[in-house]
């Protein structure tokens, strides 16, 4: 099981909502959401942008969100540049483990 840490917030309203959701049994996270959402005629794409789309991995928070979204049927793509050592096609999160 991935380590989970409840988000900190100085916003009292956000604090109340987080507490209520936790009491209802939800895990709550603010960090780690994909950088971009793109949509077209009902199609949605969620994209995490990295300096190198091949060798830069998701942070633990990003991976947690990607796993949650995947469970909900939404795929997070990894895109961006390529470093000096890498070349090739876009690598998708979750492919090949
Ligand atoms: Zn690279």
Description:
The longest helix is centred in the N-terminal third of the chain and has 12 residues, at 12-23. The protein is an alpha+beta fold and 97 residues long. The protein starts with 11 loop residues before the first helix and ends in a 17-residue tail after the last strand. Helix 2 links the parallel strand 2 (43-50) and strand 3. It has 2 helices and 3 strands. Strands 1-2-3 form a 3-stranded mixed beta sheet. The chain has 2 domains: 1-29, no CATH class; 31-97, no CATH class. The chain binds zinc ion (ZN). Residues 52, 54-55, 83, 85-86 line the site of zinc ion.
List the helices and strands and how they pair.
Layout: H1 12-23, E1 36-40, E2 43-50, H2 60-71, E3 76-80
Parallel strand pairs: 2-3
Antiparallel strand pairs: 1-2
Zinc ion (ZN) binds at residues 52, 54-55, 83, 85-86.
Keywords:
97 residues; alpha+beta; 2 helices; 25% helix; binds zinc ion; 3-stranded mixed sheet
Sheet with the most strands, sense and barrel status: 3 strands, mixed
Assign the structural class, choosing from mainly alpha, mainly beta, alpha/beta, alpha+beta, or little secondary structure. Answer: alpha+beta
Shape: elongated
What strand order characterises the main sheet?
Answer: 1-2-3
What order do the SSEs take from the amino end to the carboxyl end, as H and E? HEEHE
Helical content (DSSP H or I, runs of 4+): 10-25%
> What's the number of helices?
2
Low-pLDDT segments, ≥5 res: none
Number of separate structural domains: 2
Strand percentage: 15-25%
Number of strands: 3
The separation of the N and C termini measures: 16 Å
Query: What compounds are bound to the protein?
Result: zinc ion
Mean pLDDT over the residues: 89
């Amino acid at each position: 099981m991935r380590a989970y840490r409840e988000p900190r917030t100085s916003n009292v309203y956000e604090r109340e909502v987080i507490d209520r959701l936790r009491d209802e049994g939800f895990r709550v996270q603010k960090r780690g959401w994909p950088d971009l959402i793109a949509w077209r005629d009902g199609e949605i794409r969620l994209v995490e942008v990295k300096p190198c789309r091949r060798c830069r991995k998701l942070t633990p928070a990003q991976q947690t969100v990607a796993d949650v979204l995947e469970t909900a049927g939404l795929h997070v793509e990894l895109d961006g540049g390529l470093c000096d050592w890498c070349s090739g096609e876009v690598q998708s999160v979750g492919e090949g483990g």
